[in-house]
From TrEMBL, chains A, B:
This is HTH-type transcriptional repressor CytR. The keyword Transcription regulation applies. Residues 12-62 form the HTH lacI-type domain. One of its GO terms (molecular function) is transcription cis-regulatory region binding. Pfam families: LacI, Peripla_BP_3. InterPro entries: HTH_LacI, LacI/GalR-like_sensor, Lambda_DNA-bd_dom_sf, Peripla_BP_I. Keywords: DNA-binding, Repressor, Transcription, Transcription regulation.
DNA sequence: AGCAGAAATGTATACGTATTCAATAATATT
DNA sequence: AATATTATTGAATACGTATACATTTCTGCT
């Protein structure tokens, strides 16, 4: 074991290259007004020692952390990693670090604390429930804020959403047009605006197609204890089961299918199933779930751009942008793709 | 729009509560030697203004960031979010923030830069390829390091792994004992030690069971372009296909099954398929993949503990801990669970 | 009451950087 | 060549916190 390498500072670099600390700072921040030869000399030393400026000192001095936060919940929903990956790609491409908070565990205290302590320059909220303490805290702290796949009624911030209402409306229409007579809708907790919007759209779609929504066919369950799997079994086990089940999102649909399969129900022969989100695995051959697809990558990119522009002061007006969803018909509604 | 709230500092809190800045600092860091009444008074002001110490100033002063990094790659492999969630749970429960780096995109530059600039106090590496610049940089920077589900030959750091070799060995034995005559093995890039170990174990398991591994039945593909789906189609389409396909991990197995299904092959009637990892969705009824399960939650917790102990200087010797894997037999190898 | 010692608080400083302002070196102008 | 101008560089400072050290305020004891 050799002696501790002793972390270098810009002062050390300055000494080693025979210039002042200020000059080192100028070289590293790429400001002009520094002679090419000097820059060269300093960079040489920097490279040689693998020196990097202390991020915290930088952050403190500039009041900019170069990091953005992403608040997620329900990571087990596969759409979350998909959003996360797209966001991360966008942000890191633009030189920002990404700090992720899972607001399931430990509540939102950690996130709120992080907001107040200035750890991030901005924040993206992904689909979750409405009344968010953290969002309020961020707003009060005057922190740039973007919501993706979720709408805040009270909070004035940029929002990137998809046509949840219309997509569900069209979905209902599709099912009825295809001759489904008895259509159920399975949803998660309705304090999630995304889920609530979809259910509302679906109801209206049914009515528009001439069917009065039957309250007994609208279900809501929490995201735990395998509730949706159990529900799938129950639905198939009941007398006179529906001939189609639409779900608030793809994960719900998959869990419903688990229950159906466990109960011996064949999809689509006995019951059709459709989801909403368009997660990647919905397209897998072994799942082949009909769903309403959102352009996740686009939405995430847009959210990232919104946030960064706002952080950099390029935008002041808040804006809501809505992306068009697309119905993807697959095998769970009887459509067999060409081989 | 009201006037800017003007971020408060400990100096402001001190002034507002009629004490010195040092006392404010003492109150907030919970050090004793502060009169109860004073503490009360200060906390009152702190609460009233929602003040939180500036994390960067704190980090700079203490040389501790209170954050740990997690380096991941291939986020699209569902095991990654599972590991991530478990790690996050552990770390946040212990008061640490988690910063995630995806080393797929943008290479490892961002991560290396973060290491050198002191952004995190420690780092967890999850399964990826062997020759990691970032790991080397971390080691050089004298940063605590833990690898999970991956082994470094060269680097001296704590490691949390599972019995990849033995698990695969037993798996081969199981398949042969069940009467499979012609067993293929499909793997990803073998610079991932985890995948390499499994393949090696599988080979030896076959031999031990009296079967000479046939080089034509060992496949390796990159994680892109749907290569495994294509391979699944090709394998079933070939003359005299195998009667079982073992895979380097669950995601590969699922993609192989996609290809098999697309080619009209029934699992398990025509071909058995087994995976490795034990991701959650392998247990779903609609997938029901036989696999070798790792105790991900335990492994993640252990990794977190290792890292924190090392950061806090409680450990000096590096250690490798190996968790036992467990064969989970499901429908893709013909076993139908009780209803 | 007086004093020693402990408890509580205040003062001063350092962390590593970016930046303002002053000083110097280089260049252009006459 | 002398001066005006500009291009570089250096010195000094502030950011917000934690902590070593100095100082003050309490306590208990004789």
């Amino acid at each position: 074991m050799n002696t501790k390498p002793k972390k270098l500072s810009s002062v050390d670099i300055a000494r080693l290259s025979g210039v002042s600390q200020a000059t080192v700072s100028r070289v590293l921040s790429g400001s002009d007004g520094v002679k090419a030869a000097t820059k060269e000399k300093v960079m040489q030393v920097v490279k040689a020692h693998g020196y990097r400026p202390n991020a915290f000192a930088q952050a403190m001095r500039t009041n900019q952390s170069a990091a953005v936060g992403v608040a997620v919940s329900r990571v087990t929903n596969p759409i979350v990693p998909e959003i996360l990956e797209a966001l991360t790609r966008s942000f890191t491409a633009k030189g920002r670090r990404v700090v992720v908070w899972n607001t399931d565990e430990n509540g939102q205290d950690g996130l709120i604390s992080a907001i107040r302590s200035g750890l991030v320059d901005g924040l993206v909220f992904t689909a979750a429930n409405q009344q968010s303490e953290a969002a309020k805290a961020a707003h009060e702290a005057d922190m740039p804020l973007v919501s993706i796949n979720r709408s805040f009624d009270e909070l004035d911030c940029d929002q990137v959403v998809s046509t949840n209402h219309q997509g569900a409306f069209d979905l209902a229409d599709y099912l009825v047009k295809c001759g489904r007579k008895k259509v159920a809708f399975v949803n998660g907790p309705k304090d999630r605006t995304t889920l609530a919007d979809r259910e509302q759209g679906f109801r209206e779609g049914l009515r528009a197609a001439g069917i009065t929504p039957d309250p007994d066919l609208f279900f809501s369950r929490p995201f735990k204890d395998n509730a949706f799997r159990q529900l799938g079994m129950d639905i198939f086990g009941a007398d006179n089961p529906p001939d189609a089940i639409a779900c608030g999102n793809d994960l719900i649909a998959i869990q419903i299918m688990n229950g159906l399969k466990a109960a011996g129900c064949r999809v689509p022969e006995d019951i059709w199933v459709v989801g909403f989100d368009g997660i990647e695995m919905a397209g897998w051959d072994i799942i082949s779930l009909t769903t309403v697809q959102q352009p996740i990558e686009l939405m995430a990119n847009n959210a990232a751009t919104f946030l960064l522009d706002r952080i950099e002061g390029k935008r002041t007006e808040t804006e809501t942008i809505q992306y068009r969803t697309e119905l993807k018909v697959r095998e769970t509604t009887g459509f067999t793709p060409a081989p």
